[in-house]
Amino acid sequence: MQHGNFRIHTDMVAQMFVSYLMQTFIIITAWLAFHFYQTWAQYPMALTLMPFKGVRRASDLAADLQRHVAASHHTDALVIALGEFQTAQVFFMMAVQVASIIAIRNPAYVQAR
């Protein structure tokens, strides 16, 4: 891709975009898992048990399951993993910033040949 006096590496742009998509997918998946463990686990369980146990008993069993899942250590592990992910993101962005500064100072480093 030609831009001004120099060419841009389109594969670098594509790699950055794919990286962004992967990071977004990880965050959305973590958000869904967190909310499932905290509040949503009871709903699929209640729907599954209703034909066999009745509405009242299925709701009670699902509420018990939700309390058990919420008390587990899954959300703690998820929060720790997200903290580590954030740390990795900081180092990734530092590398991108350094590369940007180098590219601004000397565009020949990022020109396609």
Query: Percentage of helical residues?
Result: over 70%
Structural class by helix and strand composition: mainly alpha
Number of distinct beta strands: 2
Termini distance? 11 Å
SSE order? EEHHHH
Low-pLDDT regions? none
Q: How are strands sequenced across the largest beta sheet?
A: 1-2
Q: How can the largest sheet be summarized? A: 2 strands, antiparallel
| Overall radius of gyration | 24 Å
Could you tell me the strand content as a percent range? under 5%
Shape: elongated
Mean pLDDT: 84
Determine the number of helices (DSSP H or I, runs of at least 4 residues).
4
Comma- or semicolon-separated keywords:
113 residues; mainly alpha; 4 helices; 2 strands; 81% helix; elongated
Would you mind describing this structure in some detail?
This protein has 113 residues and is mainly alpha-helical. The chain is 81% helix and 4% strand. The protein contains 4 helices and 2 strands; from the N terminus they run ββαααα. It has helices spanning 10-40, 42-53, 55-71, 74-105, and strands at residues 2-3, 6-7. Strands 1-2 form a two-stranded antiparallel ribbon. α2 (42-53) runs antiparallel to α3. It is elongated, with a radius of gyration of 24 Å. 4% of the residues are buried. The mean pLDDT is 84.
